[in-house]
From TrEMBL:
Pfam family, any one: DUF2461
Organism: Gordonia aquimaris
Annotated PANTHER family: CHROMOSOME 12, WHOLE GENOME SHOTGUN SEQUENCE (PTHR36452), DUF2461 DOMAIN-CONTAINING PROTEIN (PTHR36452:SF1)
Protein name: DUF2461 domain-containing protein
Domain of life: Bacteria
InterPro entries according to UniProt: CHP02453 (IPR012808), UCP028451 (IPR015996)
Taxon lineage: Bacteria, Bacillati, Actinomycetota, Actinomycetes, Mycobacteriales
Length: 208
């Protein structure tokens, strides 16, 4: 079926889950999760698949084996379209509403070294710097795992040291509770956002 928007029940579901993250709550409301969250997310990503590829819709369960936080359920539902190793397009819904993003979410040592080498390059690094500046000027939030100091082997006065510090690099945009998240128009908006993010994805895939 065509995506018609996330219902208000999806936001209410996650509001309550943040308060009572328990199996009892989940079992009582798993029907709401399916109809208000899982099914609409599948419909949304299906409509985007022809252009961007099939999405992995993440399981709602947390891996608590090595975590002090034993809350069993994620407080958002995410979906990811991979176009490279840990690189691609992202969308999620949770209590704060809808968030979209793109970038590389982690990198092996060898791949990270290749990306940093490209950032160091005058031409390729300047290209990424221009992209990032454009995104931040147009309302995207720059994110990722960032070192507090320069990575080993790089000077703190490198002209692109802020980019070199990134162990992952993402851009994201929030739609929160905007009315668009409850309508079919969200598909068009996310398509527009992901198209805008494609130059970043392409840069990462070329150099990493």
């Amino acid at each position: 079926m065509a995506f018609t928007g996330f219902p208000e029940a999806a936001l209410d579901f996650y509001d309550d889950l943040e308060i009572d993250n328990s199996k009892v709550y989940w079992e009582l409301h798993k029907g709401t999760y399916r109809t208000a969250v899982a099914v609409p997310m599948a419909e949304l990503t299906d409509e985007l698949a022809a252009e961007f590829g099939s999405a992995k819709i993440f399981r709602p369960y947390r891996d608590v084996r090595f975590s002090k936080d034993k809350a069993p359920y994620k407080t958002h539902q995410g979906a990811f379209v991979a176009v490279g190793p840990a690189t691609g397009y992202y969308v999620q819904i949770g209590a704060p509403g809808v968030r979209v993003g793109a970038g590389f979410y982690e990198a092996s040592g060898e791949r990270l070294a290749a990306l940093r080498s490209a950032i160091d390059n005058a031409i390729h690094g300047a290209e990424l710097e221009q992209l990032v500046n454009k995104y931040t000027r147009t309302g995207w939030e720059l994110g990722g795992d960032v070192l507090k100091t320069a990575p080993r082997g790089w000077s703190t006065d490198h002209p692109r040291i802020e980019l070199l510090r990134h162990k992952s690099l993402t851009i994201a945009r929030d739609y929160g509770f905007d009315e668009i998240i409850h309508s079919a128009a969200l598909v068009k908006q996310i398509r527009k956002d992901w198209r805008a993010a494609t130059p970043l994805i392409d840069w990462v895939c070329r150099h990493g």
